[in-house]
UniProtKB/TrEMBL annotation:
Stretch list, region Disordered: 1-89, 427-547
Gene3D superfamilies attached to this UniProt entry: 1.20.80.10, Phosphatidylinositol 3-kinase Catalytic Subunit, Chain A, domain 1 (3.10.20.90), Pleckstrin-homology domain (PH domain)/Phosphotyrosine-binding domain (PTB) (2.30.29.30)
Gene Ontology MF annotations: actin binding
PROSITE patterns for this protein: FERM_1, FERM_2, FERM_3
Bias-annotated ranges (Low complexity): 16-39
Name of the protein this chain belongs to: FERM domain-containing protein
GO biological process: actomyosin structure organization; cortical actin cytoskeleton organization
Length: 547
């Protein structure tokens, strides 16, 4: 009642002043028409009886007009122009939404974005918070109503992708670089290491005992630095996470290797970590549940080189991107058209059955994005026009070629960042849906040496080499030599001379010394002083003999 007294009094004043204004206007301007005077009379006559109804017909506009009249001190009739109401629309508050992003170190980042903002706005805010420039390898994920992982499309509005529920996201690696050494900044390699360590802990990246120990030792060196006998007492790595099923034996082996990395910087340790991790057979493979034409459960894996087919933990087929002509889906079916082989004349189409329509479309999008990022120089523009057959979805980011060009132009001092502890990684840390849970991974890819036995031929190496062979090649030769740093200099020189002489003899395939003195000379080499390392090397594939 009190809010309407002000406007009523103003209306009465207007009614009393209206006849005088009409007479003055008629005397000063003879061109005033009778229609105008009649309109004023009609307003004066209709105003007292119509004041309650005109303000209560629309509650939303009623609030708007009431606020405007209170600020200006005028009635709505005295300010009918649209130009005077436009400032009130400009000053109207923009609706925002709260976003929570789980980062790779398990910390959370909260920010507010406009409700109509696109995904690129949120992604740029997260990368700015992380001080990350090489951001094209990363992305944001969210879980839908079926607890399935979905990638946030940067070209679409966020509210159109998340229909209900809170806006919770996870910052993860989307495109795993085949050669991490080509990354420019240490901070980018650091976040890639965090992602790979999370993949190992959750079982998405299975590896052998030797690989677990090697990667774990590099992780300890990157976090704790050089071994210090006073600071690192007892089992100082027991609180850190390295494997899904971590054992005391693994921790002891990690500590033994960590003691040999004297003088290695955290950046160098992460480079060694990535050089060994990239050779794992499941590195960068995004898995999707499916069934083949016979109804047998399989897994479809998308990676930088193409599409992989797994059955019973074994890779049964591989389709490289150059061999695939077309990728499509219809309802819950996913199809790939294959280029004819050397002895074939016609193209062939292979179909797979996905759990539902959303799963088929999700797999199709992942294939489109991986093919565009790794194979094309620049992304294809989306189709224009009203009559467009099929989906308009296209990858809108930069390709790997464009990313490398942009990385070469980075000119800033190395950013300072603090490396977090890996003990934050737990089995349920990530938001990757069922593919991140160890149970679902173990159904098709056992986290252990058995998976390594079945995946001997790596996707990124040349030829077929086993896991243990890659580890022998990539393990630095300084590991064995550093064990003798605490001995006198003459002993070190003798060991170095014996190593050089042994190398020369091994380079001569026809030398009789290789066959005659091999058994006598090998025990005198420094490698014999670390028998544990040599004995554990074949442990990468122990199931070959047992099975």
């Amino acid at each position: 009642m009190t809010t309407e007294t002000g406007p009523d009094s103003e209306v009465k004043n207007v009614q009393e002043e209206a006849p005088q204004q009409q007479l003055e206007a008629a005397t000063h301007s003879p061109a005033a028409t009778a229609a105008g005077i009649a309109s004023w009379d009609a307003e004066a006559n209709e105003k007292p009886g119509a004041q309650p109804d005109s303000r209560n017909t629309e509650p939303g506009t009623d609030m708007e007009e009431k606020d405007y009249s209170e600020t200006d001190g005028l009635s709505d009739k005295t300010t009918p122009s649209k130009t005077q109401k436009s400032p009130q629309k400009i000053n109207k508050k923009v609706k925002s939404a709260l976003c929570r992003v789980t980062l790779l170190d398990a910390s959370e980042y909260e920010c507010e974005v406009e409700k109509h903002a696109r995904g690129q706005v949120l992604f740029d805010m997260v990368c700015e918070h992380l001080n990350l420039l090489e951001k094209d390898y990363f992305g944001l994920t969210f879980c839908d109503s079926d607890s399935q992982k979905n990638w946030l499309d940067p070209s679409k509005e966020i509210k159109k992708q998340i229909r209900s529920g809170p806006w919770n996201f996870a910052f993860t690696v989307k495109f795993y670089p085949p050669d991490p050494a080509q990354l420019t900044e240490d901070i980018t390699r650091y976040y890639l290491c965090l992602q790979l360590r999370a993949d190992i802990i959750t079982g998405r990246l299975p590896c052998s005992f030797v690989t677990h120990a090697l990667l774990g030792s590099y992780a300890v060196q990157a976090e704790l630095g050089d071994y210090d006998a006073e600071e690192h007492v007892g089992n100082y790595v027991s609180e850190l996470r390295f494997a899904p099923n971590q054992t005391r034996e693994l921790e002891e082996r990690i500590m033994e290797l960590h003691k040999t990395y004297r003088g290695m910087t955290p950046g160098e340790a992460e480079i060694h970590f990535l050089e060994n991790a990239k050779k794992l057979s499941m590195y960068g493979v995004d898995l999707h549940h499916a069934k083949d034409s016979e109804g047998i459960d399989i897994m479809l894996g998308v990676c930088a080189n193409g599409l992989l087919i797994y059955r019973d933990r074994l890779r049964i087929n591989r389709f490289a991107w150059p061999k695939i002509l077309k990728i499509s889906y219809k309802r819950s079916n996913f199809y790939i058209k294959i280029r004819p082989g050397e002895y074939e004349q016609f193209e062939s189409t292979i179909g797979f059955k996905l759990p539902n329509h959303r799963s088929a479309k999700r797999l199709w999008k992942v294939c489109i994005e991986h093919h565009t990022f790794f194979r094309l120089v620049s992304p294809e523009p989306p189709p224009k026009g009203f009559l467009v057959m099929g989906s308009k979805f296209r990858y809108s980011g930069r390709t790997q070629a464009q990313t490398r060009q942009a990385s070469a132009l980075i000119d800033r001092p190395a950013p300072f960042f603090e490396r977090s502890s890996s003990k934050r990684y737990t089995m349920s840390r990530s938001l990757d849906g069922e593919f991140s849970r160890p149970a679902s991974v173990s159904e098709n890819h056992d986290a252990g040496a058995e998976g390594e036995k079945q995946e001997e031929d790596g996707e990124f190496g040349s030829g077929r080499r086993s896991e243990t062979e890659d580890e022998e090649v990539t393990t630095p030769t300084k590991i064995k030599e550093l064990k003798f740093l605490d001995k006198p200099e003459d002993v070190l020189l003798k060991h170095q001379a014996s190593i050089n002489e042994l190398k020369r003899t091994l380079k001569e395939p026809n030398s009789k010394l290789v066959h005659r003195d091999r058994d006598r000379r090998l025990p005198s080499s420094p490698a014999s002083s670390s028998p544990k390392h040599e004995e554990e090397t074949p442990k990468g594939t122990p199931e070959k003999a047992s099975e």
